[in-house]
Amino acid sequence: MNLNPSTAQPLYMQIRQMLKNDIQEGKYKPDEQIPTEAELCEIYQVSRITIRKAIEELVKDGTLTRIQRKGTFVTSSKFQNELLSVSGFSEFSHQLGMIPNSRTLRSEVVPASADMAERLQIEEGSPVLELERLMYVNERPLFYDLAHYPLTRFPDLEKKIARDESTYKILKQDYGTEIDSNDKIINVIGATKDLAKALECDVGANLFRIVKIAYDSHDRPVHLSTFMCETNKVNLTVHRAK
């Protein structure tokens, strides 16, 4: 397919379609970086403004993803995240055949706010572990997670959580607690500067914000978590109850 300057279709739209065809035909694969704007200018013999507009269109429709300070990449296939699932992040990743990893950004003991205390069914001001982490799949950040665990129920968890293990595995082995169910509230927000940096996305990119309260088999709250992830990387699904 060659560019046709005499057609009514703008050049940037022609390039957009050509790039999309290349991706669909496997020339550029998921997670693979496409040529730079300068290189694309040479390939198509057009201005950088034209190339930039074509790329912006592909970012808007989810075909491409910009990663700060790295470049523009073909978007990964979307992960299917079951909304009713009670598995932790490590279990979820292994089910997909992916390699999970996490990086702790911050871990500290803080007093429970009134809202937090109500959700976790604890006394306001009682100690909770506030754990801020990035969750990676195949070395790419997928989730930002801010979690709160009541230390009156899980004493010394702040020391044990440093182990390179699944949090849910620690809760089961060290405290005899398993997650049985959860409630989730989901909305969409724009990525702030800090979230964009953490998730390697554009400022203002659409993010799912998932607020989750996990419960044990006795309906006691185990933790309160807020997850953030790009909407173009995850499909949130709900299966019909039998």
Describe the 3D structure.
It is a single chain. With 242 residues, the protein is α+β, with helices and mostly antiparallel strands. The protein has eight helices and ten strands. A six-stranded antiparallel β-sheet has the order 4-5-6-9-8-7. A two-stranded antiparallel sheet has the order 1-2. A hairpin with a 3-residue loop joins β1 (64-67) and β2. α1 packs across α3 and α2 (37-44) packs across α3 (48-60).
**How does the helix and strand content classify structurally?**
alpha+beta
Percent helix: 25-40%
Low-confidence stretches: 82-87
Strand arrangement, largest sheet?
Answer: 4-5-6-9-8-7
**% residues in beta strands:** 25-35%
Number of beta strands: 10
| Rounded radius of gyration (Å) | 22 Å
Gross geometry: elongated
Q: What's the oligomerization state?
A: single chain
Question: What composes the largest sheet?
Answer: 6 strands, antiparallel
Distance between the termini: 50 Å
- Return the average pLDDT rounded to an integer: 84
Tally of contiguous helical segments: 8
Q: Which sequence of SSEs, written as H and E, runs from N to C?
A: HHHEEEHEHEEHHEHEEE
Domain HTH gntR-type: 9-77
Protein name: GntR family transcriptional regulator
InterPro entries: Bact_HTH_transcr_reg, Chorismate_lyase_/UTRA_dom_sf, Tscrpt_reg_HTH_GntR, UTRA, WH-like_DNA-bd_sf, WH_DNA-bd_sf
Organism: Paenibacillus ehimensis
